[in-house]
Design goal:
This protein is mainly alpha-helical. It is built from 13 helices and no strands. Keywords: Membrane, Transcription, Transcription regulation, Transmembrane, Transmembrane helix.
Length: about 280
Amino acid sequence: MTVEHPSARLLADYVDDGAPGGTALAADELWAVEAHLETCPACRDRLSAAVGTGVPAVAALTAAVWSELEPQLAVAAPAPPRRLAARLSTWTTPAMTPWLAMVLVVTALALLLDRANDGPDPDRISLLLVLAPVLPVGGVAAAWSRGLDPAYELTAATPRAGLPLLLRRTAAVLAVVLPALLLGGWATGVTAAQWLLPCLAFTSTTLALGALVGVTRAAVAVAAGWLALVVAPTLAAGRTAAVLRADGLPLWGPVLALGVAVVIARRGAWTAPGEHR
């Protein structure tokens, strides 16, 4: 794939952007340049040279600050590279860890209860099955919550703070939850088809509603609705709900497709700070 680098004029305008009497870049150009600079060391070097040429006062200030800091930095031992931590930080947040741990604990408890109540009755209720569709929802909410992300201000100011980052964090949640559910389903005899499609449908529905009311509120609404409309009646009736049986699975396909379509149609909404609620 050919990478298009910003031109010298565009970098000069980027340096001059915001200065009194300087050239103001369009928002799309500004974000495109910043996103490219994140991954291109050569263009960062070009930018540094452009700053030294175009804004000598800034270059002089940077040199003065560096001259003060360099002796102190030389005393401290260099920290080892943390490439893995840096990569994980683009997919997860610190707040996701306890939420994902809680999801895994709930999965394990549901598995233990299922195994304890294992019997010949084909209509027995599987707690793992009724809880699986909404287990990722809590992790998704934690991944995109303003109150739970200590680096929210920094994250929201980056060029990639929109839908791509949200999808990365959602994928990180699913990467942890789905293997645990697959293992639990194998141990209890619950086929993946019974819970995987509803699980993905609920995740896409949470993201779709999140574009309108915020991901945290959407996750709470989805989880509360499932618990009230499916889990509680299932436990009360003593039979697995029809929507989780084989004949009810085709209903989840349109729900998943609709959720994905809404997320795509509203992809521009994820750059708004309100979506981190």
